[in-house]
Amino acid sequence: MTTPDHPPVSFLPLALLAVALPFLIAGSVPPTSTYFNQVVALGGCGVWLLVWALTARPSLASQPSSGATKLLLVAGALLVAATLTSGTPWGQRLAPLACLVVAGALMHATAAATRAGRIDDWVTPLMTALLVAGLLSAVVGVVQVFRPELADGRLISFPTIAGRAIGNMRQPNQLSTLLLWAAAAAVWLGVRERQPLAVLAAVLSVLVFSVALTASRTGLVGVGLLALWGAVDRRLPTPVRWLLLAMLPLYALSWWGLEQWLSAHGVMFYGEDQVKKTLHGDPSSSRGKIWSNTWDMIRSHPWTGVGFGAYNFIWSMTPFPGRPVAFYDHSHNVALQLAVESGIPMAVVILGCALAALWMSRSALQQADDDTARGARTALFMLVMVGVHSLLEYPLWYVYFLLPTALLAGWLTGLAPVRPPPAEAAPAVTLSRFAGAWRPVWCATGALALAGSLWSTVEYGSVAIIFEPDLAWSEPAPLADRIAEGQRSVLWGHHADYASVTMAPEPEKVFDQFERPLYHLADTRLLMAYARALQARGETARAAHVAARLREFHNPASADFFAACDAPATAPAATPFQCLPDPALPAEALRPKP
């Protein structure tokens, strides 16, 4: 370990703000239920990065990067390039771009601090914050399942399914991943600080019981991984390994107990429904269908993909008679998502860089120092956990998962030994010569993340007032004026455009406002309005194609739209456009360009 190169600074308060709080915010304002969770994560991490960079001496920025860290930076740069070159509306790419840049800076900063022996700058606060978030989320889950009447929507989110914990993120799978991250954090902190085994056992029992409350199959896989960690990691103390192995039977016992207790109180444990789906229904919950659709899209766009952010639009406009009936804006698999949006070659390179970085970090798992090896193995478990989740859903598209994942990646790659440059290498060609430039990059990125989160919130307010007029400081303006004001928002104007085109009596007159909402999420109201607008513009074939795609969703809200097709036509020319044969146009032909 190297000597600390700056005065001791406690970053725990910043970690609680940046990591724990985003998982715990229950309040929301339409149109995005997790907006505050995500903006607090971005702004909080920006503050943490800025304060850390300002308090660190310049020598910290000169820490040489490991090959694994460099590969992850290359993967991030490629993701940024794919986002920049997409043809989707610029404003809808700006927020993802900012998040990718901040994630890269956090990953690099954590790796640099770890290599300098500054484990308490990032890692210890991160793990403590995750443990706090997990334990408090366990309380939220218990209330949602056992005392749902206490959920007020301010401190605890309203449960949407009886007998199932969803946390304040309102998604049971996300809650289960957070709880398992917290379990890993408890193990690392407990062993490092030599906490009594009884304390660790109590904490893990609460967290694993809470995973059972989510009835998440992703959570079940995670508990299995937790037990596997205990089985294979000989660097952990033997009692801790046995404790991790005991979590699997504890989970099974918790599942059985919940089923019995809730049934006795007239509530069906949601896990029963999950078992029925797995054994007798669709075990993938429509993921198999969406993966199949995505693979077809990849085969149609193998080289350059459909473009970043264009997944939902191209999928919605492509004929898929057996499609899942929900409106998906993601393939629920990170590898497929990269391939369909950026093309197979780019996806292979990005995923290859990430996997190669993990492989290059394997030496950290075998360090002679037990503390170092345990840290690397803990980081690996947590990355594998979110990686498995990312093969079934898209947690990394949420800022409060993306940024902690970047910190974990920096921790793991920062523990990997760095090869010294050859003695004969000229200083001009070594990376360390330019490493001092990282400090202003960290400062600038942190400052921009903070400023961007504040600007985003102001812009979000101009759109939220469309849906919640009570947010106005005084008498709210007429709806049309609120929509017009919201449409000026660079980041969130697509929500105002959606309100405009779906409420317009003659949507063809606002045709230029369809682009942003269609590239956000095409739903029943939007597709009906778009089809009518195309028909009014004389584009009958395109209108019929949109109507045919809408019919594939079998949404009850479109029943009136297709009711005319049940009436006998008086003449072929009088056939409504939504009843015409499907022209099956290429999806690209439906791009909403004037």
Please render the helix and strand layout as text.
Blueprint (H helix, E strand, L loop, with lengths): L11 H13 L10 H21 L11 H18 L6 H25 L3 H28 L25 H21 L4 H18 L2 H16 L5 H27 L5 H11 L6 H14 L10 H7 L16 H9 L1 H17 L9 H21 L8 H17 L22 H30 L11 H8 L6 H11 L11 H6 L3 H13 L3 H13 L6 H4 L32
Helix pairs in contact: 1-2, 1-5, 2-4, 2-17, 3-4, 3-14, 3-16, 4-16, 4-17, 5-6, 5-7, 6-7, 6-8, 6-15, 7-9, 8-9, 8-15, 11-13, 13-14, 15-16, 17-18, 18-19, 21-22
Can you walk through the features of this model?
The protein has 594 residues and is mostly helical. It is built from 23 helices and no strands. The longest helix has 30 residues. The protein is globular. It starts with 11 loop residues before the first helix and ends in a 32-residue tail after the last helix.
Précis, in short:
The chain contains 23 helices and no strands. It is mainly alpha-helical.
Structural class: mainly alpha
Give the topology string: H per helix, E per strand: HHHHHHHHHHHHHHHHHHHHHHH
The rough form would be described as: globular
What's the total count of β strands? Answer: 0
Determine the number of helices (DSSP H or I, runs of at least 4 residues): 23
Low-confidence stretches: 1-7, 425-435
Give the termini separation: 62 Å
Q: What would you report as the Rg, rounded to the nearest angstrom?
A: 26 Å
Helix content: 55-70%
Give the amount of beta strand, in percent: under 5%
Characterize the biggest β-sheet.
none
**Overall mean pLDDT:** 91
| Oligomeric state of this protein | single chain
